[in-house]
Amino acid sequence: MADNLECEINNLHEDNIEYVRENLLDNYYSSKLALLFKVFGDDTRVRILLSLLNKELCVCDISSLLNMTHSAISHQLKVLRDMNLVKTRKDGKEVYYSLGDDHVEVILNIGIEHIMEEVNDEN
Fold this sequence. Notes:
Shape: elongated
Oligomer: single chain
Strand order of the largest sheet: 1-3-2
CATH architecture: Orthogonal Bundle
Largest sheet: 3 strands, antiparallel
CATH topology: Arc Repressor Mutant, subunit A
CATH class: Mainly Alpha
Number of domains: 1
Strand content: 5-15%
């Protein structure tokens, strides 16, 4: 039956299981990774990150760009800051936001590339 996901024959590949077990992230790190991807699961946060991929911006700029309130943007920026996905720079009374590091840019660019390939494959 095609829907049956169990092994047709009970033949464990112990060497494969042991290799993966030795190289699998422990629960602490897999939970942190799941949380990271959860943060990327919100459209507003992704749009903020994509905006910052292009240029350092303040809350007012992001609010105007995304047509959202300062409060809503500030809330999402706090989530992004807590995950070290964005960082801040003060210039007098203004606070500017940028991507936290090169890893964030890589994650975004790989995601964009994946989506563009998927869309092109559909056409």
